Amino acid sequence: MARIPRPTPSLALCLVSCLAAPAAAQPAPAPPAGPRIELTLLERDPATGEPRESREVVEAARVGVVAVDVWNWHWCKTATMRVDALVPRIDHALEAARGLGMTVMLCPSDVVENYVGWPQRERVLALPTEAVPDAVAVDCPPVPDAGGCACGRIRCGPNYGWDAMHPGLRVGPDDWMPDTREEVWAICRERGLTHLVYVGFHTQVCLLGKPMGLRAMKRAGLRCILARDMTDAHPGYDPARGFTPDLNTTQVVEHFERHLAPTIDFRRELARMGRWDDAAVAEPVRVTPWGTAARPHLFEDDVTVTLAAPLEPGAEIRYTLDGSAPGPSSPRYDAPLVLTASTRLRSAAFRDGRRVGGEGAAAFERLGPLPPAPDVHVGDLVPLRSVGFGHTHGGEVRYSGDSGPPRADRSNRGDPIRIDRRTFERGLGVHAPCEVVYAVEPGYRRFVALVGVDERIVDMSHGSNLARYPSVVFRVMIDGREAATSPVMRVQSPAWRFDVAIPAGARRVGLVAMDAGDGNREDWADWAEAGFVVAPE
């Protein structure tokens, strides 16, 4: 069982299982294989919303499980982590489905062609194609859409950095990687599938709008089902009115049950068949907004944080705010937390004093006050030392690729300096790793700057396949000692604010831009409005 390569870990997933198709659109018969299974379906009355259950029996070999958009990244950091939290459950379900003889389809849509040469993709392209019937009229009212970012007042900037499926999602040797409605239909014809079950993320976007999604395949005559315990809506967050990503998902799932397709609790179905091991899946407490050490949530004034464990009913959540491990005697989560300072939050769910599931860890960094404008801009100064990304030989830097020496008042590529969707006239553009050192002149009292990852990459197809890579840590060094450090900065993060006092007798100030620990690919970095505040005479 192969795992997706690391070039980009992941994000969204949709599991598809569609039930009996009308005779006019019935795929070719498949040879008898595997057991017959009984599914408990939940639907709702379109007018009243009242739930109603039914049961349906189907041969496992006629069921397709389709995983859509299990990407390794998303422009919304909270959405990224919510995918990360659900992938172990989905991966376990896909492995169980394979063991029952179901057909597994992995559909990363936007980045499917990054899998050219993989047999799971090439065998799809080798199938004969035919026109897909429009056998069923599908009339679904607009689905609740919460805007796509679950990070509150400081919202993530849209950029398309995903380039593969999540690395925790295994790819089976007999899996398929379709991308279009025609390709999914061809697999159904080839395999004799009559049922598709969808699991995954950004439910109201992927399952409705994508050509391999639930609505498109239901229109073809397949009986499609949503796995309600393995999906997540395109999230929104408004803690002031109690609106959370989990509430958003509940609303979207209920909309599907009323107007589009029945749902199943896939874990429960597999457990009834003896194909589920709870010990193999440890789902973390979900945090909103969900920053991490590698991608922290930056905020001003305060941030309201909610915790949830929707897949552990009856469990209580315990948490800590000092970075220590949560235990059964840690503070119990009863209401949203309001953080006013930089915090390392850790949380876990407990039942009868015993921990259930995994830990939800999160990192929050509070921005300092906006610094004053400098009296002396670094772009007007001649540095004592300037080294950067490349090879150094005989005191000369041979700059790597298309990077170059630190550039005054422009990005390192020669474009305007841009951080967090704002353009700056003055500053310094570099590529990490880089250090520029300046002499401290009489009267220099403070060093000030706004720093961040340059946003030129977003101009290229919204950062397609690349926006997840830039990550920079900025440091201010005074006489070789660290005076201030930023958290990890990412594309379209708010600018980090430096306002650093220069001690009496200091001789040198160094501006350092460092790789954040994951390599220096696309680490273009900007020191905007950087310079020295001079004491009045």
Q: Could you outline the blueprint of secondary structure elements for this entry?
A:
Blueprint: E1 2-3, E2 16-19, E3 36-44, E4 51-59, E5 63-68, H1 77-99, E6 103-107, H2 119-125, E7 170-171, H3 181-191, E8 195-201, H4 203-209, H5 214-219, E9 223-232, H6 245-259, E10 263-264, H7 266-272, E11 286-288, E12 297-299, E13 303-308, E14 316-320, E15 337-339, E16 343-351, E17 354-366, E18 376-377, E19 385-387, E20 390-393, E21 396-399, E22 407-408, E23 417-419, E24 422-424, E25 427-431, E26 434-439, E27 444-453, E28 472-478, E29 481-485, E30 496-501, E31 508-515, E32 524-534
Parallel strand pairs: 5-6, 5-8, 8-9, 9-10, 12-17
Antiparallel strand pairs: 1-7, 2-9, 3-4, 11-13, 13-15, 14-16, 16-17, 18-32, 19-26, 20-21, 22-25, 23-24, 25-32, 26-31, 27-30, 27-32, 28-29, 28-31
